[in-house]
Write a structure and sequence with these properties.
single chain; alpha+beta; two-stranded antiparallel sheet; two-stranded antiparallel ribbon; about 35% helix; about 20% strand; elongated; binds zinc ion; Zn-ribbon containing protein; OapC-like
């Protein structure tokens, strides 16, 4: 599952990634390349910032939904098996379901 989004620096156009969970209104971080501080706001005038915010929001939604599913599965499995035999089910990978 994708939990990071691409951000394009306003100044040097370098593309880097950051966690979708961090990219919310009021968040700021330095560009790793030119070290300018980028401020993240959904109402930003910067198209790069706005795009990153949109991507982050979508990624957070997907994460939330996938976490909800896996939490239910883990809870059910640990209740039934005591959480000890999880390794035996590793053969059935379901990571290929991404679109
Ligand atoms: Zn930069």
């Amino acid at each position: 599952m994708e939990d990071s989004v691409q951000i394009r620096c306003t100044r040097c156009k370098n593309v880097f990634r950051d966690r979708a969970k961090r990219l919310q209104n009021g968040y700021s971080r330095q560009c790793p390349s030119c070290e300018i501080v980028l401020f993240f706001d959904e109402d930003s005038h910067d198209a790069n910032i706005k795009r990153a915010m949109r991507s982050a929001r979508r990624a957070r939604k997907e994460l939330r939904e996938s976490e909800g599913v896996s939490t239910r599965q883990t809870t059910a499995a640990s209740r039934r098996y005591g959480g000890r035999s999880a390794s035996s089910s590793r053969g059935t990978e379901d990571d290929d379901g991404d679109d």
